[in-house]
Amino acid sequence: MNAIELNERIRGSLTILVDSADELRDLDQALGDGDLGITISAGSGAVIAALEQLPVDATPTDVARASAKAFANANPSTMAALVAGALLAGSRTWADRTDITISDAQQFAAAAAASIAQRGKTQLGDKTIYDGLAAVADSLRDRASADDAVDGAIAAAAHAVESTKDLQSRRGRASWLQERSIGIPDPGATALLRFVEAWRAASRLPSS
Description:
mainly alpha; Serine Threonine Protein Phosphatase 5, Tetratricopeptide repeat; about 0% strand; globular
């Protein structure tokens, strides 16, 4: 996938993702401050606008960096800062890439997950987006085709969301609920699942 294709797929995915804003808002209200829907809506719109302005000779790294900057600037939320940092960390793995392979996507996801773990001071089982992103990064190893990689990423993200239901939130405002957070899926992990689902759906859209 070259930079032009990457740019188009991200914009298509985010256009679909915003349809999940109400679901994510409701989940976040149950566990946190309820701003995740706004974060996703505003961030997605800002990224789409920024990518539309990129020159045709932009690289995959340029696409990722522009996405990170736009998402961060659209929202003052902690989630926006974490996602932007993750995108920047991932972009560094594409420094010399002109075409993105499955292996490149795996390296990006792994670097993004490591960034969230470090900046968010979180680990597996804390019931955060990191649970989902780490699972997605692992799922991308040794995949034979793009379709196989996407299907595997969706399955991994969905399993992570389901697993977070049984966990107690240990980071952020959700941790204040203690045992009451058990039984509710993590909003951040759910947002990641909806994004990878949107990524697959965007592949079926006609090219612009």
